[in-house]
Amino acid sequence: MSKVFLDWPTFPTAAERATKDEQLRANVRRATHTIRAKRGALAAERPDWQDLRDSAAAVKDEVLRHLDTYLEQLEAKVREAGGVVHWAQDAEEANRIVTGLVQETGETEIVKVKSMLTEEIGLDSALEKAGISARETDLAAAIVQLGDDLPSHVVVPALHRNRTEIRDIFRREMGKHGRPAPENLGDDPEELAEAARLHMRDKFLRAKVAVSGANFMIAETGTLVIVESEGNGRMCLTLPETLISVVGIEKVLPTWRDLEIFLQLLARNATGERMAPYTSSWTGTTDGDGPRTFHLVLVDNGRTRALADPVGRQALRCIRCGACMNICPVYERTGGHAYGSVYPGPIGAILNPLLKGPDDPQTASLPYASSLCGACNEVCPVRIRFTDVLLKLRSDVAEGDAEVKHPAEKAALKAVAGVMRHNPLWNAAVKSAGRAGAVLPSDMNLPGPLHGWTDSRTIPEIPAQSFRTWWKRTEGGTR
């Protein structure tokens, strides 16, 4: 069965385990520092860098204000170009649509490229249950799949692996799924890339069906765009007879002119390159050129929920560049798996709760997976204010009636609120706290479900008298 983020532990539990893995921390640190250094140099060479960020944020906000209009325009243009458009409200519906489309072709093995959304909805598992094998062809995604692993970064899913580990995976697993790795395969990057190329070439030449994602969709023409580094995406987009693209509804852009802004930003932020080696675009179908059948599956899966949040909706600007992860001190120490989602790091800490709502036990802790240092705000190419959204989401959990709260916590907070609204009761409670402070140790652990408050906190010393008492005694105040 394909591995998915199901029944994953909450961030505090997963992070505690991850931070003890010295090899993981070394791998993540090396990779993130390399990418962010390259990004910094390329951003500095553009005098209009901040203007590009402003423009990108403005375009995305325009799309989000009129998302329904642009999606209807996109749908009409895709159909005019010979494509078929499907709408999926959630993961279950999207998986059902894609599985049905593949089954209609009679194929039992397909190739995939560039789609975090299919990881989000668990498409591989759904296809596997239907007897369909889906093989990843993006190199990093293929490493994750061959290693029966999970992605840890939005741009480099296998970032947590070093090349020696990748060599061992290739030697052990490639032969089980097709062409085996060459004998005596070393860990030189060129050797590893050549082994992957030979392994995947057989699959490209046999595949009749491909599933892709898209970085952008152009409403003006119904065109989809994929940005990549290897060329495997282009093989998936041109060789199969049927192409199924599964894309989140927020990926739409109004015009080709808008695309120019994002192509200048994406590669610099994602991989530290001025331009991605491969930028592929396709519009519907053309006789004698590429797939004969094209399906576009537009997926919501919580995006309209995020859109309804006036503070959180800015997370839908995200272009999945990974810059926020590469700069984040928390991600650097925990890696991506601790977040329990295909979207880790700062973007995962805000996007996952927005997509799933405040009552999801696995995502409720993610807004606290941040030091609030604001480094992610400074590097985001679409100017997402991560810290604003994190604080809003923390408030939703802490001050709302989220079901993830323990009943004892809810009762205690309501009781405290009632006391604070009643002046005589509050004054009496403050005086009692002063007397209790003399006997309560600062390293005390609270009992039962309240222990969470003291596991990571030291109770401050409680003064013997309140400020009001001190003021009345020393200054003769009347309050």
Describe the structure.
With 479 residues, the chain is an alpha/beta fold. The chain folds into 2 domains: 11-303, 3-Layer(aba) Sandwich (Rossmann fold); 407-475, no CATH class. Helix content is 50%, strand content 10%. It contains 22 helices and 10 strands. It is globular, with a radius of gyration of 26 Å. The chain starts with 10 loop residues before the first helix and ends with a helix. The model has no long low-confidence stretch (mean pLDDT 90).
Put the structure in a nutshell.
The chain is 50% helix and 10% strand. By secondary structure, the protein is of the alpha/beta class.
SSE topology:
Layout: H1 11-18, H2 22-44, H3 49-65, H4 67-80, E1 84-88, H5 91-105, E2 109-113, H6 116-121, H7 123-129, E3 133-136, H8 139-146, H9 163-173, H10 189-206, E4 209-212, E5 216-218, E6 223-228, H11 232-238, E7 242-248, E8 252-253, H12 256-270, E9 278-282, E10 293-299, H13 303-307, H14 323-327, H15 329-334, H16 345-356, H17 375-379, H18 386-399, H19 407-420, H20 423-437, H21 451-455, H22 467-475
Parallel strand pairs: 1-10, 2-3, 2-4, 4-7, 5-8, 7-10
Antiparallel strand pairs: 5-6, 6-9
Helix pairs in contact: 3-12, 9-10, 16-18
